[in-house]
Structure formats: structure tokens, C-alpha cells
Amino acid sequence: MADDWQTMTVADLGRVVTGKTPPTAKPQLYGEGYPFITPTDIGSYRYCEAARQVSEEGRESQRNLLLPAKTVCVTCIASVGKMCMTDRPSFTNQQINSVIADETRHDPFFVYYLLQTRVEHLKAIAGGAATPIINKTAFSEIEVSVPPLPVQRRIAGILSAYDELMENSQRRIRLLEAMARALYREWFVHFRFPGHEKHLCVDSPLGDIPQGWEVRPLFELTKVNYGKNLPTKKLADDGAHSVYGAAKIIGRYTEYTREGRTIICGCRGSVGEMQITEPKCYVTNNSFTFDPTHSDNFFWLFHTLKERGLRDVVGGAAQPQITLDGISSVELVTPPLPLRTRFQRTVAAMFEQAWTLDSQIQNLRRTRDLLLPRLLSGQVELKTAEVAA
Q1: Which CATH number, 3.30.450.20, 3.90.220.20, 3.30.1490.270, 1.10.150.130, labels domain 214-334?
Q2: Neighbouring residues of 51: CB distance < 8 A, sequence distance ≥ 6
Q3: CATH code matching the domain that covers 6-147, chosen among 3.10.310.10, 3.40.630.10, 3.90.220.20, 2.60.120.340
Q4: Per CATH, which fold does 148-195+336-389 belong to?
Q5: In what order do the strands lie in the sheet with 287-292?
Q6: What is the CA 44 to chain-centroid distance, rounded?
Q7: Which one, of 182, 165, 138, lies nearest residue 46 by Cα?
Q8: Per residue in 228-248, pLDDT tens?
Q9: pTM of the model
Q10: What is the spatial distance between Cα 117 and Cα 105, in angstroms, rounded to a whole number?
């Protein structure tokens, strides 16, 4: 590490703010206005989309806790070490400590990357309790090594280049997903599919549907199975594969649908959440797998299940869950196979492009994560890193 790097505390980087949840008994404090960030909103990108917002009245009730754009937010209770940055004035709940960088001395993006190198330390000092926690004082006293501001900006610029590429790709993925969903809704929800003018609507158990369409049981359209727990040794043997489901023990190996991908749905924990897995993955017994009986059902079935949802078949009070018996009664409005095939061929290119972008994101993230600790410890020459970026 260069001689001009200094050891200081998080408190020296700027103002530390602990968030607060506005009273839920006062709904007027919530509404359009300012993102209200909680740990569940924070993912693997610098910026996140908050599920809720604070209204102007809510802002006035805790104006001293308002975070400007480019504030670094760190979860310090329960899921310790998750991080994001604000992209506009925002609030957080009490599980998050935030750093409003003093931009006369510290680059906010550098602070974001710097604190990422302290995640393991954060987890270590939060341990020892039923619920891991780091209070504001302990968080503020964490030591960090910081170079002069011009070096901070250069380091932040190198790492930000990776994040900006990932963020751009993620935006393109969301656009492609939105295009596929919009087409699905146009054809199969609003019934404005190609040639719909020639089809009259007829009665069915699920309401009016186009003539020639059917109401069919889900179990006729797809095989449904639980994932399955296997010995943990299997995880070591096949550790290169992704694991889907909340359990840490991996389960049933899936390699049977579209190019090794499968559709899964959470049956415990994240109940009812639908997604398409990565190729050749393992699925735990916290999820169902769907193996369409016809390959051209794949994207149509995914969107149909996502659109319909399975919340109406959730059972269990102590632990909400979906069972095979519970979904045995699920029926779906099913268009003729040629129309499902046409939809499959239309949206397949969108999904393939999205999957390619996702693979690029994973590669960029791995490169950035390898570079980050080396830059932040002074192990890598800035000129070398700048050429690589």
C-alpha cells in the first residue's frame, strides 16, 4: 500500500445516518415521493427499486433522515453486509446505516466499493447474537484505508465502468422481458392474437374464451415435481452448477426442458414465485419443477403460470406452502398448439438475447470482484487496471 493512504474510520468518510420506519398506522406518510429502501429491496446491483415510497408528509416527519443521491446504504441487522447506493433522495428503515460522503474529501462511489471490502468484517462484528446486529456507533468506528481524492476517483472510475456495463445489460434484459410479457398479455389475456377476428367467444368454466380454446388441468400440460434434497457431498461433486431454492442442500438435478433450463415455483419460503433457471441446475425441495409435456409449451406455460399466480392454492398457517395436492385442481385457459408454437418461436429470440446478456453480466461481475479488493488494497497498479478495464 502506498505511503499516501491513510487509516481512518467510517465516520471520517462523511455523515452516518440510521434509517427509521415511518409509523404504518399513518398511511398518509407513504405514497409517491421518495424511495423507502429496506434490506429486501437490495440486490446485486448498485441501485435498487424500493417496493414502497414515502410521501411529502412522510418526508417532513423525518427530514433529518433524508438521504441525497449517491449515499451508500449498508444493512446492519439480520442480513448484514448488503449494499446499494441511492440514485435520488431516499429514506431507509432502521436496519440500514448509510454514509453520506463528504465529497470535498471522498468520492461516494469509492466509499461504496471501499465498504464492500469490509463485508466479512461487518459480519464478524455482528455475530454472537440471535439476530446479527451492528449499531451506529460500532459501524461508525470501523477502520478503513483511504488514498487521496484523485486516486479515489480513478479507482471508482475503473470499477464503475464494470457496474455501468452490468446495469445497461440489466436494463436491456428488463426491456426484453417486458416485451415478451406484453406480447403474452396481448395474445392470451386480451385475446388479440393473430387472426382473432375470425374467432367467436364461447362460455367456459373460467369465463369467455375464444372458440377452439380449451380449459385444461395443469397436470395435463406439464409434469410437476418437488425438488429433492440430496447428501451435501453431491454439492461438492457438482459445485459448478447453480442451486435453486432456499435450502442450502441441493436437490433434484434438472436437465430436461429448453436447453437444460426448467421452470420452477417456490412452494415454501418464496411461495408462488416463478422463474426460469440457468442450464443444468439443482432444485431444492423448497420449489416445484415444471416439465412441459410439449416443448412448445415452455414460454407460454411460464407466462401463464406467472400471470395466473398460485396464491389461491396456498395452504398452511404456521408455514404457508403449496402442495402437489393443492395445485391438482389448477386449470388453465389453453390456446391451440399452433398458437403456442408461434408464441414460442416469437419470444425465444428475446429470451436467448436476455440469457446472453445475463451471462455477460456474470462474467463482468466476476472480473470486477477479482479486481475490487486488489485496487482497494493498493496491490494493483492503477495504470494496469485502467488498461484492463
Answers
A1: 3.90.220.20
A2: 38, 40, 41
A3: 3.90.220.20
A4: Helix Hairpins (1.10.287)
A5: 222-226, 287-292, 263-266, 274-276
A6: 7
A7: 165
A8: 654 444 444 444 445 555 333
A9: 0.82
A10: 20
